[in-house]
Amino acid sequence: LNSAADQAICQPLPVLGRDVRVPLVAGGEVTYAALDYAASAPALQRVWDDVAAYAPYYGSVHRGAGYLSQLSTDLFEQSRSTVAEFLGCRADDQVVFTRSTTDSLNLLAAVLPPGTRVFVFETEHHASLLPWRDGDVSYLSAPRTPREAVDTLARALADRAPHGPALVCVTGASNVTGELWPVRELAAAAHAQGARIVLDAAQLAPHHPVDIAELDVDYVAFSGHKLYAPFGSGVLAGRADWLRDADPYLAGGGASKKVARRADGTVDVEWHTTAARHEAGSPNVIGGYAIASACRALTEAGFGPLVVREQELVSRVLSGLAGIPQVKVLSLFGEDAPRVGVISFVVEGWNSSHFAAALSAEYGIGVRDGLFCAHPLVRTLLGSAPDALGECGAPEAEPGELPQPHGGTPSLNAIRVSFGAGTPDEHV
Ligand code: PMP
Q1: Pocket probe mutation, ligand 1, options 121, 125, 128, 343, max atoms within 8 Å of Cβ
Q2: pTM exceeds 0.80, yes or no
Q3: Cβ contacts of 304 within 8 Å, gap of 6 or more
Q4: pLDDT for the residue numbered 24
Q5: Ligand 1 centre and the CA of 297: distance in Å?
Q6: How far is the centre of ligand 1, averaged over its atoms, from the C-alpha of 169 (Å)?
């Protein structure tokens, strides 16, 4: 890293009218490896093709007599069924199209029955950690093994009193370590104590099949832009009753079936009892269609071969990193714990942000650095206090100055590489 010769071949390249600094290899060819799939994965060509084919025909859904509206309503509802099938939904589950996993979990937080106690590990992504904070929440301390996670949850649920409604929120695969959480066992522990469980599948769904009935979870949330569809759409799927019984997440057209002015001057509303109840306004029809297209593509590719290929890549990255003495790979459950293609590490003597900037500027390797929206988890992994709200990032390098290694200071944040299976014809 950091040699003047390498800097000399890093050139501005016009991309969409802007100059982006990219490294060029000897023949003047651009090299760039985007290894930040855990943040957002590139959309599959097939998904772009499906969206492009539909784009000239989209119209508003559920309310038009014209053929564009009819076509769009049909495709939107068909997309809902495709997602339900992808998730192995039960007969009484609803599939609500949202903006993202964050939106899905906030929607669930908004429909919890009064008095619901929420149980969440402090190691969760902020999208799973924070939506419940205005209610009655128990934050569970970081487990160091999957077994400890199940025992910690079982104990916390058993200790709760009174035994009103309860919800457990857990991530299937960590966006920091890639480690898999024991979802089935956690669901069994939750149900044994009469609690429900929501699975944050933002990182799990792109890498493994997520079958709501087989995992026996009550709700699943995920985002299109991590599942090889473009931005702007997400899903909350699961038990219809809480969704049906609560007021709509957003009030407006589409969610309301009948609205009338009462004699006393107030307004009377009858809300839909279907998923439309929580999809007020004009829904993101193209987003739903794109998610369904990605679900179909993954189902057709088959998770079996994708998992095998991805695990080969995981092993290759881990063994490469193991050969560099200054690198420490982060893990909660131990280095041999099963994980998806998400690997975070620190490099001794280097500030992680500087290291990540150097990887991009000099080698064309795009990674993520920081605390990955999971501040308590990353602080635990780095050995600092999980409750310390301290400095997260690193001082910026001056423009034109190459990041420098610095000895001594322990890293306050980490570097993450994340990827999919990389099939030959598609970058899954
Ligand atoms: N949960 C996990 C585990 C995630 O990795 C992410 C995204 N990094 C989210 C939730 C939030 O997803 P989105 O930003 O699409 O709402």
Answers
A1: 125
A2: yes
A3: none
A4: 64
A5: 21
A6: 13
Structure tokens given for 379: 């602080």
The protein residue with its alpha carbon nearest to ligand 1, atom 2, reads 202
- The rounded distance, in Å, linking the Cα atoms of 43 and 36 is 13
What is the number of the ligand 1 atom nearest to the C-alpha of 175? 5
Which are the catalytic amino acids?
Answer: 373
Q: How many C-alpha atoms does 169 have within 13 Å on its Cβ side?
A: 32
How many alpha carbons fall within 13 Å on the CB side of residue 49?
5
Give 282-328 as a DSSP string. S--HHHHHHHHHHHHHHHHH-HHHHHHHHHHHHHHHHHHHHT-TTEE
User: Which residue among 98, 226, 236 is best mutated to probe the pocket of ligand 1, counting the most ligand atoms within 8 A of its Cβ?
Assistant: 226
Give the mean model confidence (pLDDT) for residues 66-71.
94
Structural domains of the chain in order of their starting residue, each with its CATH number: 4-42+302-418 (3.90.1150.10), 46-301 (3.40.640.10)
**Which of 6-20, 216-230, 256-270 bottoms out in mean pLDDT, i.e. has the lowest?**
6-20
Kindly tell me if the per-residue pLDDT of 280 is higher than 90. Answer: yes
pLDDT range class, residue 4, cuts 50, 70, 90 = very low
How large is the average pLDDT for residues 199-227?
98
Q: Within 13 Å, how many C-alpha atoms sit on residue 68's CB side?
A: 9
Q: What is the complex's ipTM, to 2 decimals?
A: 0.99
